[in-house]
Amino acid sequence: MQRALGRRVEVPARGDVFDGGVSVVARPHREDVLIAVAGLVGGLLLWAVGLHTQGARPLPDGWVPLPVVALAGAELVRRSMPRTALLVAVLALVLDQFTRGSVATIAMFTDIVYAAVLYGSPSAARRIPWGTALLTVLVTVVGVSWLRSPEGLLLGVVTGAVTIAPATTGVLVRNHRDAAEAARLRAEQTALLAELDRTQAVAAERARMARELHDLVANHLSAIAIHSTAALSLDDARTTRDALKVIRENSVAGLDEMRRLIGLLREAGGEREPAPAPTLGALDALLEQARTNGAGSGLSFALEDRRGAEPAGGGAAALPAPVEMAAYRIVQESLTNALKHAPGGAVTVRLGVDRDRRRRALWVEVVSPYGDRPGPRAPGSGAGLVGMRERVALLDGVFEAGPEPADDTGRDGTAGGSGTGAGSGKIWRVRAELPVGEGNGTS
Predict the structure, then answer these.
(1) Last residue of a domain, one of 163, 193, 223
(2) At residue 351, what are phi and psi to the nearest 5 degrees?
(3) How far apart are CA 122 and CA 110, in angstroms?
(4) Which of these three, 193, 216, 232, is where a domain ends?
(5) How do residues 336-376 score in pLDDT, each as one tens digit?
(6) What is the Cα–Cα distance from 282 to 263, expressed in whole angstroms?
């Protein structure tokens, strides 16, 4: 015996063997020992009182205990060595036919057949029932041909009761055991899948919270960082006063956004209802705030909403809430990146509906100058681009972001670099296509 992980583990002996695909440990099972002892004692008692199952046979009465002892020994390994136990049991039963016989011998033989089906290999569990059926038919045919009387049929019935009945019982019990094991495994797999789903749901929720937190405060904190840097680097009272004004406005707005996020995280029925999610209708206010924050950096901001100009449009139609939320956050993050990194020039936000495909899609495009920016700038971590890609991926959309030549035209056919004033010959374009599907108010 060895101890592993706080439990006692039984190590097989060196002389262990394999029988029927089952690993054998030297010590017999407790139930097998009890069955063997009961069969041996019962057989010896029946032999002592002279109770037999057959009449005169070639071997004297002294041979009767020999099959009983052999079958009792087979009972000890019925679970660990079922194939060997069955072979010994068959030989012992054949020997028993040459003696006056014992009920204990027949009883232990039926148990050995049952155990061989139940504990043996899958192939043995399939073959033994068929073998017992063929044996019963053969004994019946030979008995009728030899005795030429109805007693031959009775011999076949007895053979079937001793062989087919225990084999069939073993098949039923084994099938029930296998079904229970399969149900247990399915239950474990279901529990594992449920745990994986829970883990993925938690991870997805944490990622969503990270995106929301970044999008809510990055814009305001970037403006605060830029203007505080300007106030510290320029010794001018008016500049400092204007910077402090912008810092205060962004601080208040950031606190409001944080309160909204906290409201979203509260359980339903809490102290206050969470504020509604932002929509594309709030883009004007978002760009006005960007103009205020970027007034000192030479940036200008414009919005081109082309949804109402689409064929059969008749105005900007309502969109699914997740699409509007994602589009708003993409514009918000793009404006934040422009405030942090873009040199002076025009920043243009364009919206439209792509009707050239079977799957309707809202496209959002933000074009800003690209190049080295003079003066104070806020550091970037790349989390904004990751968050935008994740938002678009959740809606099965397409996202593109990167520098392009200033004279490159957008996918809507307009000049992407028009009016950027970057001075570097390049622009930074962010474009996202968000599917809205049929019947979502875009047709």
Answers:
(1) 193
(2) -130, 145
(3) 19
(4) 193
(5) 888 878 887 889 999 988 766 566 889 999 999 987 766 55
(6) 20
pLDDT, residue 375, reads 59
Q: What is the pLDDT of residue 407?
A: 63
Task: Please tell me the predicted confidence (pLDDT) of residue 310.
Answer: 47
| DSSP at 415 | B
Asked whether residue 288 falls in the same domain as residue 180, the answer is: no
Q: What is the CA radius of gyration of the chain?
A: 43
By the 8 A CB rule, do 77 and 85 touch? yes
Please list the ranges in the chain whose pLDDT falls under 70. 1-26, 212, 214-222, 225-227, 229-235, 239, 260-277, 309-317, 355-359, 373-382, 407-424, 437-443
Which residues sit opposite 367 in a β-bridge?
348, 429
Identify the domain containing residue 308 by its residue range: 279-443
The number of C-alpha atoms within 13 Å of 145 and in the hemisphere containing its C-beta is: 6
Residue 393 inside a domain? The answer is yes
Q: How many residues does the chain have?
A: 443
Residue 440's pLDDT is: 40
**DSSP track, 367-411:** EEE-S---S------SHHHHHHHHHHHHTT-EEEEEEEETTPBPT
Is 409 in the same domain as 294? yes
Say yes or no: 304 and 185 in one domain.
Answer: no
Q: In this structure, what token pair is assigned to residue 221?
A: 């904190």
Instruction: Give the closest residue to 47 by CA, choosing from 89, 102, 95.
Output: 102
Kindly give the residue spans of alpha helices, DSSP state H, lying in 272-355.
283-293, 321-341
How many CA atoms are closer than 13 Å to the CA of 378, on its beta-carbon side?
22
DSSP string of 156-189, one letter each residue: HHHHHHHHHHHHHHHHHHHHHHHHHHHHHHHHHH
The reply to whether 342 and 440 lie within a common domain is: yes
| Backbone φ and ψ of 358, nearest 5° | -65, -30
Instruction: Quickly count helices (H) and strands (E) in the chain.
Output: 10, 9
**For position 330, which CATH number holds?**
3.30.565.10
pLDDT computed for residue 381 by the predictor: 60
181 part of a folded domain: yes
Same domain, 286 and 187: no
Same domain for 30 and 162, yes or no, is yes
Total domain count for the chain? 2
Beta strands in 168-291 (DSSP E): none
CB 152 within 8 A of CB 140: yes
Beta strand 299-305 pairing with 361-369: unpaired
